[in-house]
Design goal:
Oligomer: single chain
Largest sheet: 8 strands, parallel
Distance between the termini: 49 Å
Helix content: 25-40%
Shape: globular
Number of helices: 16
Structural class: alpha/beta
Mean pLDDT: 94
Low-confidence stretches: none
Radius of gyration: 29 Å
Amino acid sequence: MHVLFPTGRQTEASLSASLLGVSDFTYEIVVSGEIASFLTPERLQSLLESHPCDAAVVSGMCTADFSAVSSASGIPVFRGTRHAADMRLAVPRILNGTLSAEEPADVLLDEERRIAAEKRLVTMEEDAESDFEIRKVKFGKNSRIKVLCEIMDAHRCSSLRETAERALAAGADGIDLGFGFDAAEGDVIRCFSELEDLDCVLSVDTLSPELIKAALFRADIIFSLTAKTLPLLADAVKASGAAAVIIPRDDVSLADSVQTAKDLGLTKIFADPLLQPPLSGMIESLAGFLADFGAPKVMGCVNVVELIDADSPGICALLAASAAECGCCAVLVSEHSDKTAGAVSEMRRAVSQMQLSRGRPYPKDAGVDLFVIKEKRRRKEPSPSYESVTDVEGVLENLTYDPMGSFRIGIEGDKIVAVRRGHAVRGRTAEEVFAAILSDGGVSLLDHAAYLGRELYKAELAIRFGRSFEQDGAF
């Protein structure tokens, strides 16, 4: 098979280096112009006539439709990777004929790896052994680390059901309802009744024996029992069938407290050595998780994720790795503050990454990652070439308002909203909102069009990253 790779003058060297040594097929790299993505159907047709081949692989950045060229010439035209330096990744798909005429090759490969990782996770969990199951969810041994979403002060949560369902949709294996001493038994009953029909693990998190008893009609896991409260609650917990999470307290070690729980007849037992916040004993407490307490361990990560001003994806990744090294079977995380929004999904991805990395020296290249803003590797694409340059400093202050009117831009949930004269244009992407505005004749000045494009895309990014949006403000 002979393959033609049309490319730009700027990317010819990168493409040549990427394909160097490929011997599975013969190929020819032909410069089609200055920039590879500017390739037109007419130019490709001319290249195919002068460079015979069995298939053509164009840049994944091309936006033109080459289907007519392919039909007329009888030569299949596929999209390669978006970056010339990555084109070698497309070689296996060139060989097995699974490149796409519409989707860039690296997008297909990313999706392929993601699907393969998801299938492997399902198989691993189905085959995994466990210490015990709660509502058909495996805990312990070689099963995946489970993620419980802690809803703090659940009795004061005005949208408890919605919050729980959102956490479950984000990948939580269960919901942990936390109650302070200001809560009453009626509050606990109300909260658990509201979630009673959810087909998921529910746990209660409180030190109050009265509040624990009030939750036993539906709670599957009881946080946090101590050597002092165990004798008061063991019979009721046993009768309910709930699992017990034991913590160290009142100068009684965790190992001794776990043994007390066993002596009292409890069989589903977790040990929680208690992870402390950063700069408040975190490392020393983390070391305490290495011990064997005779029961599967859980790690409460809320104190760390909530009590540090750092982006939560990386924090969740490190905590998941720590939990995996320490042999924990479950982690707790919350989305109590704005800065931890999305932490449930991040932690679920993190524990999945650890599961897929078993038997590997490091949790990388497993098919799951937590990159949000940064990228795994930077592509060394050449900068555009030019013959002259205009260096600009600042923006001219003389502003001309568009006679078609101004727009007020905002976000509603996962949609962008652009309002003018009481009418709103609403969509999920900046491109589709601007296209609707343009088709309605809503913009007549080029600088206004550029402004709208910038602000609409800022709104799209705000939705994508779960941030607030302020028109004319910095992102």
